[in-house]
Amino acid sequence: MNIKDFEYNQKIQGYYMIKKIEERTSKNGGTYIDINIADQNKDEINGKIWNAQGMDLNAYKSGILVKVRGQVQKFNNKMQLHIEKIRLVEQSDDVNFEDYIAAAPVSSNQMIHEIYSFIDKIIHPQIKELTLTLFKDKEVKLSYYPAAKTHHHNIKGGLLYHIRTMLDLGEKISSIYDFINTDLLYAGIVLHDLSKTEEMIADELGIVEDYSTEGKLLGHIIQGITEIDRVCRELSIDDEIKMVLQHMILSHHYHAEYGSPKMPLIPEAELLHYIDLIDARMYGMNKALSNVEGGSFAEKNYSLDGRSLYKTSFGDTNNG
Amino acid sequence: MNIKDFEYNQKIQGYYMIKKIEERTSKNGGTYIDINIADQNKDEINGKIWNAQGMDLNAYKSGILVKVRGQVQKFNNKMQLHIEKIRLVEQSDDVNFEDYIAAAPVSSNQMIHEIYSFIDKIIHPQIKELTLTLFKDKEVKLSYYPAAKTHHHNIKGGLLYHIRTMLDLGEKISSIYDFINTDLLYAGIVLHDLSKTEEMIADELGIVEDYSTEGKLLGHIIQGITEIDRVCRELSIDDEIKMVLQHMILSHHYHAEYGSPKMPLIPEAELLHYIDLIDARMYGMNKALSNVEGGSFAEKNYSLDGRSLYKTSFGDTNNG
Amino acid sequence: MNIKDFEYNQKIQGYYMIKKIEERTSKNGGTYIDINIADQNKDEINGKIWNAQGMDLNAYKSGILVKVRGQVQKFNNKMQLHIEKIRLVEQSDDVNFEDYIAAAPVSSNQMIHEIYSFIDKIIHPQIKELTLTLFKDKEVKLSYYPAAKTHHHNIKGGLLYHIRTMLDLGEKISSIYDFINTDLLYAGIVLHDLSKTEEMIADELGIVEDYSTEGKLLGHIIQGITEIDRVCRELSIDDEIKMVLQHMILSHHYHAEYGSPKMPLIPEAELLHYIDLIDARMYGMNKALSNVEGGSFAEKNYSLDGRSLYKTSFGDTNNG
Amino acid sequence: MNIKDFEYNQKIQGYYMIKKIEERTSKNGGTYIDINIADQNKDEINGKIWNAQGMDLNAYKSGILVKVRGQVQKFNNKMQLHIEKIRLVEQSDDVNFEDYIAAAPVSSNQMIHEIYSFIDKIIHPQIKELTLTLFKDKEVKLSYYPAAKTHHHNIKGGLLYHIRTMLDLGEKISSIYDFINTDLLYAGIVLHDLSKTEEMIADELGIVEDYSTEGKLLGHIIQGITEIDRVCRELSIDDEIKMVLQHMILSHHYHAEYGSPKMPLIPEAELLHYIDLIDARMYGMNKALSNVEGGSFAEKNYSLDGRSLYKTSFGDTNNG
Amino acid sequence: MNIKDFEYNQKIQGYYMIKKIEERTSKNGGTYIDINIADQNKDEINGKIWNAQGMDLNAYKSGILVKVRGQVQKFNNKMQLHIEKIRLVEQSDDVNFEDYIAAAPVSSNQMIHEIYSFIDKIIHPQIKELTLTLFKDKEVKLSYYPAAKTHHHNIKGGLLYHIRTMLDLGEKISSIYDFINTDLLYAGIVLHDLSKTEEMIADELGIVEDYSTEGKLLGHIIQGITEIDRVCRELSIDDEIKMVLQHMILSHHYHAEYGSPKMPLIPEAELLHYIDLIDARMYGMNKALSNVEGGSFAEKNYSLDGRSLYKTSFGDTNNG
Amino acid sequence: MNIKDFEYNQKIQGYYMIKKIEERTSKNGGTYIDINIADQNKDEINGKIWNAQGMDLNAYKSGILVKVRGQVQKFNNKMQLHIEKIRLVEQSDDVNFEDYIAAAPVSSNQMIHEIYSFIDKIIHPQIKELTLTLFKDKEVKLSYYPAAKTHHHNIKGGLLYHIRTMLDLGEKISSIYDFINTDLLYAGIVLHDLSKTEEMIADELGIVEDYSTEGKLLGHIIQGITEIDRVCRELSIDDEIKMVLQHMILSHHYHAEYGSPKMPLIPEAELLHYIDLIDARMYGMNKALSNVEGGSFAEKNYSLDGRSLYKTSFGDTNNG
């Protein structure tokens, strides 16, 4: 049963994914379970299990599918689920795990295919070979890695989706400025965040557990630069090409306080920065406004400089 | 004779435009003229007129065409022109003034036509009417106004060129993000800098003489917002549309310290900001690198955050 | 019964205003009411209603007058009210709602009268007419609007009180600097915050519920400038006067990061800024120190840059 | 002859004060003198002495009165004086040195008298005694010290003039806020900058030659605090009074980066800061606009945050 | 029994110090005690006293030694003590209070002795006398004062320990730079924080209760400067020596926003700043890493600019 | 003849090094040479060659030794050399080039030897091997490279001198904090700036001509990290050691705006930063004060945050 269809006092039952689970104590000595569950639409509801006798809390964890029976109650003017029965999903339930995972709207295979097509558009053989080699190295991890822990594109396959959309943007924008070297631009886009796969530790659901030790001590920009260095040596890439691509990675956050000790010094590096930013912002803004009604404001959003976005009431006149 | 073909000790002669002229004193009591002249390619050279007896300095000013005869000398390892003879260009010389003016690479008529086509793509009738009315009001001034005094697009028709290129960018970028309301985006692009025609006082060569008093006390963002307000009242435009477009103008510099007291709160305002920035940067970078040889650095550029850009030696592999 | 006279274990009874009310759950499944009530001195106390059976929580809200009976208890070394009985105030109780509202120390009528007297001191007929027209437009809302949601003068009639005190300050300070144009100064003071009545949505108790949509997208400075623009057109006010008054509104926060894209460029705008600041600070400091004993510190105050003020022990030697 | 009456090619003669004098070399080996002179209105003009043979340059210095004869020439569209004859002023010339000095518009005696009257209004005997003692200590220096080297009130008696005007402001502003302790406020105003007489080394013309060593290593705020400390010990002043007045001196620049490690923590310290600022700004703005025509802008002013002020064309309607 | 040896469900008993104690209410009307206790290793555990009937809460306070009996329970995967019995420690228990206090690893007597030895190395008689006098004045308080409330060296005798270690550093570093005047350096180190004994109010356990009024209004830097001023007058110390030492105190935080209105202008002041910083950082880092395993990260530390430090897994190869 | 012994009107003759040379024009059409020369003490004087007929200006360049004859003249109260004769130094003159070069006070051989001794103190074999390999790679360049273009240690062998002094500091400071891993600290000190030899292009006199292209696009921190990466692969160094040393290089400027995207996360990295800073500051301060008299101030120094340092008049009481 879909969470958005719940009504007060209704008896409900269905399959859900645990998003958060915590044992709590009541002041009269007993304990209860505070739990958040989500359905296939990724909508969430909070619930309580007042009697947790005999539940093996090591089995019930975030990311686990469960079958739930309970009653919808009103608490502080919000819905809350009084959970009467809960058990782990079994094979015979025939529930598809993938349906409960927030993921990119395009399949990873499709996106990987598209990115290879873009790499194929690179004319300079060394730039192409280098880009191909590094992308192949990361292909498996990219099929599920998100682009961030809590910021934009924090979904399964999010990093891949971000790269692919940036390549589209890069192609369109460079069609307007004919002095742009698209070899450099495409290579820069493909490579710019590849080492996030080494900076973060993510599982196959696209959920980041933590940053790696090297990620904390060096960061993906520095990791990416040394990876390019290594592969360039192996492939005997020209020194200037190596240096320019390393510079693009180094400068793509633009500001020193965001991790780029050098500002972009070539137009392709400048574009890379803005394409990265635009895609992050468009993703975040679209998501922030997705459940907002026309004529009202979204909640304050820390990934968007603390802004509370507005949705116009006259909508997308042009798109429909 | 073209300046880039000058050689040491050569006698030269030709028609040039004065870019800078100044009377100076030598310490032994005499005076001489320090002058910069430019040819049709907009290349410049410094020259000296040691004997300025009888020259009417009120006639010789920046922006004036002159016929010059002189000799190329070496001074501190640079070329300098020892000017022996100089006179004002006369009608019989058959020199075309326009050839000496830095101007947009597309004719103003052509650009105005293209912008009208974009306005025609706006679906919402009120947004279209408002945009049309304000653009028409400024059409004459736009045919020659630059976009800035010293920064990007400071050429004749520069503001028009900036708007037109931004519209191209807007169309391409919004084709990737389908939730973008292109009515708002196109209107925002057309309107965002229109009041620069009131903020600055420019002549028909596209040269800014000064900022207007209102420009100094209010600035083009505030001027633009009150202009929209006035026209919306005249046309009985819907309040929300007025407010949202005013918000787009208000927020398009993004940062308070650059003149925007509110940050963008709708995705179209966010895009407007980045499209504006990208076009300014691409214009400035292209220009900064135009005379730089591959493998070397341009001069420090204050319009580009003080950067000294690099030009790769392997060039535009993809564009040739 | 006054809250400051309560004693431990005392049985109390009286009329109070609800300031905050919230339903809470106890961990054994039951619910109770957490409530803050205030008396006519605006002193507050927290209370609990352990048995809320049958209370219509839609009727009991912040800003409502109630009759309360209960017992004062000690909890964590502070007083807390165990509420045994609570009901809504009825007409027959003969309780005056106004007595429970934090309001300016002078009546709105009196303040409005004084401000008209100041406007009358303006000599230049256009400046006077413009100021009069805009002030009249807002007179009704001003009779109850506060000057802010949580900062200084957040009381009923607070905005009016702020304007009136600023006019007093303006008259006194300009008596020392004879080059100041008091027409501009008085007009600037009256107009500077008028559009807060459009930026915020407040009820007749002077309590701000929220900011308006236009307030969030444009802000009172921009709203004020367009209002001046409109009225100037209607009254055919001289362009320079319009522009200078708009500049005063625009620059009165002085710093770009506080909403003023232009710094004050005339002495009257400079004074307006400091008079605004002084009155806000004196109001806030007086209030912050009002319940502090001599020789000790007030609590940290976020409206005063996070400062914890000190009250000297030797007091106001000069005032009494 | 007054400088503002000079005309091109005119022969002039008169008594002037040297404001700047410098020996320069011409490139053919000779030397000449570049000199600025001012008349009684403090207007200045630049001049050249091409033949400086036999001039004793140790005698001709800034601040010296001279008799000058020469001819007004046009150079780069500005007036310049070709000085033919120059000699030191002699007693028999009957020129009054004082007439050439930029000084406060009120006599030092008068200002000192007024400040004593204010000190007399202090009620608390210890605050009065302390203020009196410190002011007496500095009375002689104050009769000519400026308030700054290059910023506001950099004229003879400028510090005294600043203190006196601040006291007027303090009296007027505190009449509006009755919780202000005027004893503290008056004492704080008198004491706040007294140690500038130790921080800077100024001559009796009110010209600052340099900062003292102690001024550079400690600064007038710290110097003032230790002076108060010393005198409080000598006079057995109450500890809290000492501490509070030291705090007022310490915090009167408000911001750490302007020299105040503590922000004001009492209302009187807050007012002291704003009164100081207002008087500095009003002085500087009045001066910056003094030679500006209505409807135009003053030059960029570094003492006023780099602003270029505007003078309205409709003037002081109220003061005429 | 040591806390680090506790196991789930174990019955325990022992002597502990109360670190935090609070009465709380359960929602069913009852109250219980939430308490933190520490053992001699300064390890802490949280406990609950569900039945606090008859406990005199005025006697049980932070810093008090108690005898505790209870059972270790598991709550939210952490240990929690269910306290069954608690009483105050009595003389007959023979528990040594000092064992429970976090203190410097060297005895105060020993440190005081060492500091006197350093003062003895000062050659210039006036610098030595001044330093000796001020240090003697503070000797008693220094025997237990910490260096800060919550930052580095916040332990009994911490300020003394900080000074002593800084003197060691000063001696070693100045042995490399022979132009350093060690008289000034040693004096500066001894004096730099002495007035923290006036800025903070600490008890003999080295726990800071609060800042003093003077500490809040002036701060230890200003307090230190006036103390030096007073003693220099009493001892007739040379003006330059006084001024230079005051400058060292004034500038030792280096940055205005950290309380130093002047930056260091002599090399000894520069060194003082860095020696102070190094000792604070080494102390804080050593402590932050003390319970961290090799190859992992410490918790975020606000005294260390919010960093989460890393401990290498290959350890101190050189020290073992 | 030594420059510091020159007197006005004296005829002088001697061997000097050219420090700056420039052809200039006099306004009457002729040219002359403006030149700075230095003696063996590195003292400098400005001179003019009024008649440069027949001088081959390609031969006379900065860094060249010349024999000069001329007369000392007074110009603007400073000494200036009227150069009558100048020629290049010849072999038969028997002048030692080295004597005219600003260089470290210890021979490069001696410093290299000392650094090898420090490397030998490293216990961990991999850390030692890595450090040794990288140091050997750079040994030749280090024998003359300065540490900076215009900042501290900008002398021949300056980088070596900086490293060696830092190692001394590191040894002394780590003797006080026994938890410091000296292997890491020594390795970090040796490696931290090694890639400055790739970032800058310097000649064998230790004069930096320019930054390299890679230096401008990446900078020595990034260059150093990739060099460590390469050598670690070649030597099969343990991953954690590589990562930790790269982190030390990355973080040694501490602040992002100075080029360190990560702050130090291990104590050895923290110490490396402060040791680097202390040595740079002590070098710069010693130099800035070297020609200043006691009781007066040095000139404003941009390498020292714009400070004007003070030299006490009581000098180094302890070192004499």
From TrEMBL, chains A, B, C, D, E, F:
GO biological process: rRNA 3'-end processing
Ubl conjugation is among the record's keywords: no
Single GO term (MF): nucleic acid binding
Domain of life: Bacteria
Keywords for this protein: Hydrolase
HD domain mapped to chain residues: 160-280
Signal sequence, renumbered to the chain: none
InterPro entries associated with the record: HD_domain, NA-bd_OB-fold, NA-bd_OB_tRNA, YhaM_exoribonuc/phosphodiest
Gene3D superfamilies tied to this protein: Hypothetical protein af1432, Nucleic acid-binding proteins
Residue span(s) of domain OB: 22-88
Protein name per UniProt: 3'-5' exoribonuclease
Lineage: Bacteria, Bacillati, Bacillota, Clostridia, Eubacteriales
